[in-house]
Each structure stands twice: as structure tokens, then as C-alpha cells.
Write a structure and sequence with these properties.
Radius of gyration of chain B: 22 Å
Shape of chain B: globular
Mean pLDDT of chain C: 96
Number of helices of chain C: 6
Low-confidence stretches of chain B: none
Number of strands of chain B: 13
Largest interface: A-C, 85 and 85 residues
Strand order of the largest sheet of chain C: 1-2-4-3
Radius of gyration of chain C: 22 Å
Mean pLDDT of chain B: 93
Oligomer: heterotrimer
Distance between the termini of chain B: 37 Å
Low-confidence stretches of chain C: none
Structural class of chain B: alpha+beta
Number of helices of chain B: 12
Number of domains of chain B: 2
Structural class of chain C: alpha+beta
Number of strands of chain C: 5
Strand content of chain C: 15-25%
Chains: A alpha+beta, B alpha+beta, C alpha+beta
Helix content of chain C: 25-40%
């Protein structure tokens, strides 16, 4: 039994380039070349995904992604000379994700949890090795990822879970903020305690 | 009970990895040796150690009076003459060393490597000799033999030594039963699967693939892969039956811990500081888990009994019994993160800690003595296992929906952040000063027995 | 307007523009330097945005792609996730980044030298989304930031207020969280 060489492994805590990070937020940008059948298949997939919120339930539950985007590039806009006119032979897929620091620790989990979703979105891309096993999948992402030159987040220290907790808390705190002033102290104390009890998952 | 499908070559594996010595040996010393002589001379000494190394083979004639185990740092491999090319095949974090990873580990401020004890984290630790002994006298004799062998060889120096001894009742200094919850390993401890393995949807548990802890075997990623692409490991022959080891000396400020709990409890459930402390830890002092016994410890709880750790968190998803941010729930969340454990099962490690220093008796004022825990863990990947747990589960609360709150027990040199104790209403512990401080540490590699011989012979390729 | 670019009230914008020959290094230096000034913070509707230089498509022998396809010219990608609709955002972007425009899109073929031309240029080079995911597409940047701040303050308050009598509690709460 021989052991595989550890040539250029992507460590779980591998630090992405500094310019792909703003506080907790990390940017990933990937271009992949799409096989001929993806030209018809991907727009259908995008449409179905859009219309079927259930398909993104897992992404919502995983709570690692602020914003993510898949775009199919089939032609390159022309801006006059000296830009060469280029007719694309293949479609190319642009993918961007704005996710939490810490995602890399769970990239294994993504392969296990989102196995079929990843296969659907990247299965028509050249070189996609399947989401499992994790090793080749990580290598694929790494070799297709493009380093950012600049990345900006308006609230760099907040993770997606924190943003959602803060928004949820606002819903629960707002009524008490409105009514606090006019209440009897004892009634206020009870309402305050109830608010904390109801909102504790966000605290 | 072993899984017949997986055969682990126990003769080639060093002892104390898959099976704990802790309960068999009261005394443990960790000696970090610096090599100042040429590699050939060091290898001659190293070679002399090999006959004494304790393997994982079952003991036929009862347990040995003393045991010896050997681990090396990246600098140590070089000092023993292992080529740069072979050293480069080890993982990046091992080569960089623990002190270089201080920021991500939270070893900053008072835990900064600059303030560590001499000999740790400064590149001088090359070889770690771990000696276990049943009796104090055996312990002294074994240490004497170790030093004599070093003196004979010459060009070797102990740059740091930590002696440790079990405390009464296998407790750590804060008073908690410790070290009995370990991952169940396929082919080695399948019977520990309930509570120790991966929680499955049907209520059962399965033991983890051995490659999570011992290199050269299939891991959780490759266990079902017919092609058996094995996990990343150093170039053969070093890759076989080896594992990575994390060694940390963690100082515990017992007086501060007791004071913080007593002060905070004044506002908590009629001053019940034992319950408050249990909420922070996730277990009562005897080890009874809070998730099964939220109100008081189970008088019949036996930490070593089969099934003592057979519990889950899914029935307590709001943390009313065991707080979402309690120490044991963070360090091993089991099914707490959902997805049938998929977010947790690649982040397990085998822990072999030992307390050091004399206990501070209850009610005694702070004596400022050095006491704490030697934390040891074994894992196939330091970054995926130890570092991920340290960074994502202990030093950050995001995955548990707790923002940037850190583990309240381990804390952080820069302060812990608050802790929410879920309840009706919830209770909030104000941020406190760190009660645990890092005094030093090293990333090491524990070679298999044949790999040790290859190092000694200078035939590592 | 293509509705694929929208999720809730959030808009996902992408424009790919060709970099003038000989300008790539200068452009890269400029945008790599933006980390120091973070000019996008002036465009207050921006949640997250990036500037990326794409030199070519990626190929590897083991991808078994029959014919390799290369980008004819390196491109600049500008992507932004922001609040509300596109036109007024691009107006705001132009106004707030007036000083940076010549250094960024001014180095792209056909690109503007001032705020005026930016909107038309970026819209001409826009690539529509196929699928846009936003975790909290209903919440604006302002709302997110205010809520995050409020959460921090409530956690500190709740810790400090433990053990207060009702009257004191109410007074402190009203002071900390006015209606």
C-alpha cells in the first residue's frame, strides 16, 4: 500500500490571497469553459433553480454565502478597435461567491452535502472532476480560481449568520423599542424578559 | 472489538495513539531534545532508542513498567539528516511549526510565542521523548536512563522538559473529569462508536476511518473509494503508520476561574456557581453530560463505562439543556450542526492530555503556582483537524450562530467575548480575562516503527 | 431589465471590459492599491464588489477539451452586489468614483475618462446573471449595518442589565434604545 504524494495540497486553513479577503468576507471568482450541451442546459438549470426555492434550501441552511452568481458568457461585447472581434466557440461560465472566512475548513463538507448541486452547476464544465472525492475537486477549484485585484465589503466583520441574526433581532426588538417608554416598569420588565427569551437564538 | 475489514498494523504503529496510556500510567514526562551534533552522530543515538519504543501491539505480559515514544519536529527531521526534499513532502503547517501559526491559533497577547517558555516554539526542539511510568521510582529511573544515553552520545541537550502526573480521580485542574471522550476508530475501537463515532441519521453511530488518525490508511474521504486514493502523507517510507501530533502547554488560572464563576453566579439561579460552571463546560464535574442531565449530575455516571458518551444534541437544538457555546459542544459538536454530522466528521482528533502542577485546594487563595494541562492530539491533518477546531469552533462562534463569541472556558488572550447561557430568560456571562494561557507548543510527527528505523539508518530517501 | 440580475431588492451586476494593450500592469497596480482607500465605501448602496483581471480562460491537458479557446485580449471584470436598481446605482458609482474612473475604466478600450461616460460603458459591457443568490436580498446595506450595530449594543446591554430593578431597567433601556 503506497501513500499518495502531498504535492501542493490545499490545506483546510490555507490562506487565500490577501486581496480576495475583506475582514471575514472572502471572494472567489472562477471562469470555466462549458461543453456544447451546457449552452442549452445551464439556462434551463438557472431558471429551474430560480423558480424552485427548495433547491437552494441547503445553501440557506449552510449559511456561508452572502451573495453568489452564475453567469453564462456566450459573447464578448465589442468596444471598437483595438479590441479584436472574438466569436466564442464555447460558452464560458462566470461564478462568483461572497462567503465567510472559515469556508475553507468546510469545503469537504460542501462536497458531501452539495454533491448533486455541484454536479448540476459544474458538470458541463471541462475538467470538473465530480464533487467527490474531495481531493481532485479542491484541486479543480484552485486551478480555476482567479485572484482578485480588489475586494470590498460594506460590513467586513460580519458573517452571514450574524447578518441574519441581527435582522431577526431587529424584528423582535422593534416592538419593544416602540412601546417601552409608556409601559409600567413591571410590565416592561416582563416584556423585556420575554423579548430576550424569544430572541436568544440571535444573541 | 475490531472491524474485520480494516487491518491496522499495530506492530508498526507507536503506542498511546489509538489506545490511551493515561489510565495505566500515573506519571508522564515530555522531554524536548535539541540536536547540536552532526546527523550521523544523532542517528546513532536515535538508533539506540528504537529497541525501547513502545508499539501499539497488545501487551501480552501485562503493561510495561515504563514506556517510551518518539516524535520529531520539522527542524528535528533536518537535524537527523532527512533530506529537504523528503521534509518538503510533509504538510505545510507541520513544516512551519506551531509558533508560526500563532495568530490563527489565537496565541497572541499573553499567549504570544515571544512569551513562551524557553525551548518551545523557537526552533530548538527537535525530538520529543515521551516517557510514561506507573510508579514515581520507575519514572525517575527511566528519566535517568534517557539522560545517560544522551550524555553517552554527546551533542544533545534537553531544551524543555515537562513532568506531569494524574490528579486524583482523573480530573483536570478546574475539577472536571477529562480525556475519556475519544473518537471511535474503525479497526481499533469500533465498540466506542456509540458517542465516539459519526452520528448517523438512523440513530446509530459508525466508527471513523483509521486514516483520519493514522497515515497510510483510508480516511473518511477515501473509505468508499474503490481506487483508494490515500490521504496526503509524507513520502514513503515515512508516510506509513505515522501521524501528526500537536503538543501544547496550557496554563490554567484556577483562582481566577473560581472567582469569575463565583462572581457571575451571584446573578444566576440563586448563586448556583456549580451549575453555571457546568453550563460553561457542558458537563458536571464528574463528567455527566448536561444534555442528558441538565439539572444535576447523575450519581451513577461512570465516565469509563460503555456508552457514557452516547448522547446527541439534536433534541436540544435550542441549547436549553447544554448551552450552544459550552466547551464540549464546541469542541465536538456531534450532530449539533445538522447535515448528519457532515460539518463535523472531518474535524475529529484523538486527545491525550495530562495535567501538570499541584492542584489548588478548594477555598485556598491563589498561590501563583504553575499548573495546567499538557494538551496532546493526534490527527492525520493538523490544519483540517486541530487548527480547524481551534479557529472555527473554539476561537469563533459563527458556525454555532454565536457571532464572534469565543469558547468561554479556553478564552482568548484578548478576552472571550460574552457567553449566552440559553434559558427562560437567557443568562449572559460578561467577557472575562483568559483563564487558560498558552505557555508553549510544537507541531510534531510521530513516525511508524519502520519509519523510525529508516530515520535511524538514514534511508528515508 | 433582466430579472435574473435581481434577488429581493438586491442587484447582481457584472461588466467585462477589454483592457487597452500595454495598460494591464498600470491597471493592476491601480486596483491593487484600492485596498488602502476603499473608494467603494463612498457608494453606500454597495454590499460587496470586486475588480478582477482575467488574462485568459483556463486549460489543463487532463480537461480533454478538444480545442483550446483563448481570450483574444485580457479583460477587466467589475462585479457588484448592491441595493435597488441599476441606473441610479451606476450614476452614483460614477459620481463617487469620478477621480478613479480614468485610472480604471479609462484604461479599457472605449472606456470613459470621466463620470459621464461610465454608465453607458458599463451597461454596454454588462453580462447578465444566469442565477443570482442573495442570502438576505430584502435588506439594504443601511439596514444591515444598523442591525449589526444594534445587536452588539443589545448584547452589551443585556449583560450589563442583569440584576437591575424594573424601573432602572426601563430607564436604561429607553436611553439605550430610543423609539
Amino acid at each position: 500500500m503506497s501513500t499518495a504524494p502531498s504535492a501542493g495540497p490545499i490545506t483546510a486553513t490555507g490562506t487565500p490571497s490577501e486581496r480576495n479577503i475583506d475582514g471575514q468576507a472572502i471572494a472567489i471568482t472562477v471562469f470555466s469553459t462549458v461543453k456544447w450541451w451546457g449552452r442549452a442546459f445551464l439556462p434551463v438549470l438557472f431558471n429551474v433553480t430560480k423558480r424552485t426555492p427548495k433547491l437552494t434550501t441547503t445553501i440557506v441552511q449552510l449559511s456561508f454565502i452572502h451573495f453568489a452568481r452564475w453567469s453564462l458568457v456566450t459573447k464578448i461585447p465589442y468596444n471598437g478597435a483595438p479590441q479584436p472581434k472574438q466569436r466564442l466557440r464555447y460558452p464560458h461560465m462566470y461564478f462568483e461567491s461572497n462567503f465567510n472566512g472559515g469556508w475553507e475548513e468546510y469545503i469537504d463538507a460542501f462536497s458531501h452535502i452539495l454533491t448533486s448541486g455541484m454536479a448540476a452547476f459544474w458538470g458541463s464544465s471541462y475538467g470538473f472532476p465530480k464533487a467527490l472525492p474531495v481531493g481532485p475537486f479542491k484541486a479543480y477549484i484552485k486551478e480555476n480560481e482567479i485572484a482578485n485585484s480588489h475586494y470590498y465589503s460594506a460590513y467586513p466583520e460580519a458573517t452571514i449568520t450574524m447578518v441574519k441574526a441581527a435582522l431577526d433581532l431587529d424584528d423582535k426588538l422593534a416592538p419593544l423599542r416602540r412601546s417601552a417608554k409608556g409601559m409600567q416598569p413591571d410590565a416592561f420588565a416582563r416584556a423585556y424578559e420575554k423579548m430576550l427569551t424569544d430572541a436568544q437564538r440571535s444573541l | 472489538m475490531a472491524d474485520a475489514r480494516v487491518h491496522i498494523d499495530l506492530r508498526d504503529l507507536q503506542g498511546d495513539i489509538l489506545r490511551a496510556y493515561g489510565n495505566d500510567y500515573d506519571h508522564t514526562s515530555y522531554a524536548f531534545v535539541k540536536i547540536t551534533c552532526p546527523p550521523e552522530q544523532a542517528r546513532a543515538w536515535f538508533s539506540g532508542l528504537l529497541d525501547h519504543v513502545t508499539t501499539a501491539e497488545p501487551w501480552k505480559d501485562g503493561k510495561p513498567v515504563t514506556t517510551l515514544n518518539v516524535a520529531v519536529t520539522a527542524a528535528g527531521l533536518k537535524a537527523l539528516g532527512v533530506s529537504d526534499e523528503v521534509v518538503a513532502s510533509f504538510s505545510a503547517e507541520f513544516r512551519e511549526g506551531m509558533s508560526s501559526r500563532a495568530e490563527r491559533l489565537g496565541d497572541t497577547g499573553v499567549s504570544d510565542p515571544g512569551a513562551w517558555e524557553r525551548g518551545l516554539g523557537d526552533g530548538s526542539a527537535h525530538v520529543l521523548l515521551t516517557i510514561n511510568a506507573q510508579e514515581a521510582e520507575d519514572h525517575r529511573r527511566a528519566l535517568g536512563l534517557m539522560r545517560a544515553a544522551m550524555d553517552d552520545a554527546g551533542g544533545l541537550e534537553i531544551v524543555f522538559q515537562q513532568d506531569t502526573a494524574l490528579l486524583t480521580g482523573a480530573r483536570e485542574h478546574f475539577g472536571y473529569a477529562d480525556g475519556f471522550a475519544q473518537p471511535a476508530v474503525q479497526g481499533a475501537s469500533d465498540d466506542k462508536a456509540p458517542g465516539g463515532g459519526v452520528p448517523e441519521e438512523d440513530g446509530r453511530w459508525r466508527a471513523l476511518a483509521p486514516g483520519e488518525f493514522v497515515l497510510g490508511y483510508p480516511d473518511e474521504d477515501t473509505r468508499d473509494d474503490p481506487k483508494r486514493t490515500l490521504p496526503n502523507a509524507p513520502a514513503d517510507p515515512l508516510g506509513k503508520s505515522g501521524t501528526y501530533m500537536v503538543w501544547r502547554k496550557l496554563y490554567q488560572d484556577v483562582a481566577l476561574w473560581r472567582r469569575v464563576m463565583a462572581d457571575a453566579a451571584e446573578l444566576y439561579q440563586a448563586g448556583d456557581e456549580h451549575k453555571l460552571a457546568a453550563k460553561v463546560v457542558g458537563r458536571w464535574t464528574d463528567g455527566t453530560p448536561l444534555v442528558t442531565h441538565p439539572d444535576k449530575p447523575d450519581p451513577d455516571f461512570d465516565a469509563t463505562a460503555r456508552g457514557a458518551n452516547d448522547f446527541r444534541y439534536s433534541s436540544d437544538s435550542d441549547g436549553m439543556r447544554c448551552p450552544l457555546g459550552s466547551h464540549i459542544r464546541r469542541s465536538n459538536p456531534r450532530d449539533a450542526l445538522g447535515f448528519q454530522g457532515a460539518l463535523t466528521f472531518r474535524h475529529r482528533m484523538i486527545r491525550r492530555g495530562m495535567p501538570y502542577g499541584d492542584p489548588l485546594p478548594d477555598g485556598k487563595p491563589d498561590d501563583r503556582a504553575d499548573r495546567g494541562l499538557v494538551f496532546v492530539s493526534f490527527q492525520a491533518s493538523i490544519s483540517r483537524q486541530f487548527e480547524a477546531v481551534q479557529m472555527q469552533w473554539l476561537n469563533d462562534g459563527n458556525i454555532f450562530g454565536l457571532g464572534h463569541d469565543k469558547d468561554f472556558l479556553l478564552g482568548d488572550p484578548e478576552g472571550t467575548g460574552k457567553m449566552t447561557i440559553q434559558g427562560r430568560p437567557p443568562f449572559f456571562l460578561a467577557p472575562m480575562e483568559a483563564v487558560v494561557k498558552t505557555r508553549g507548543g510544537e507541531y510534531l510527527f510521530v513516525p511508524g516503527v519502520s519509519a523510525l528505523a529508516a530515520i535511524a539508518d538514514g534511508t528515508t530517501g | 431589465m433582466n430579472s435574473s440580475n435581481v434577488s429581493g431588492q438586491a442587484y447582481g451586476f457584472l461588466a467585462i471590459t477589454p483592457i487597452k494593450p500595454g495598460e494591464q500592469d498600470a491597471l493592476r497596480a491601480t486596483i491593487e492599491g484600492l485596498g488602502a482607500t476603499r473608494p467603494l465605501r463612498r457608494v453606500k448602496r454597495t454590499h460587496m464588489a470586486r475588480l478582477v483581471i482575467v488574462e485568459d480562460f483556463n486549460h489543463k491537458p487532463h480537461y480533454k477539451q478538444r480545442r483550446e479557446e483563448h481570450l483574444a485580449i485580457p479583460m477587466l471584470c467589475f462585479s457588484s452586489n448592491f441595493d435597488g436598481e441599476l441606473d441610479s446605482y451606476l450614476d452614483d458609482l460614477g459620481a463617487q468614483l469620478a477621480g478613479e474612473i480614468p485610472e480604471i475604466w479609462g484604461r479599457c478600450i472605449g472606456g470613459p475618462q470621466d463620470a459621464k461616460g461610465l454608465k453607458a460603458y458599463l451597461k454596454h459591457n454588462q453580462i447578465d446573471c444566469g442565477f443570482f443568490y442573495a442570502a438576505y436580498g430584502q435588506a439594504t446595506v443601511a439596514k444591515v449595518k444598523a442591525s449589526l450595530d444594534q445587536r452588539e449594543r443589545l448584547m452589551a446591554f443585556a449583560t450589563r442589565a442583569q440584576g437591575m430593578e424594573p424601573e432602572e431597567l426601563q430607564e436604561a433601556f429607553v436611553k439605550e434604545f430610543p423609539s
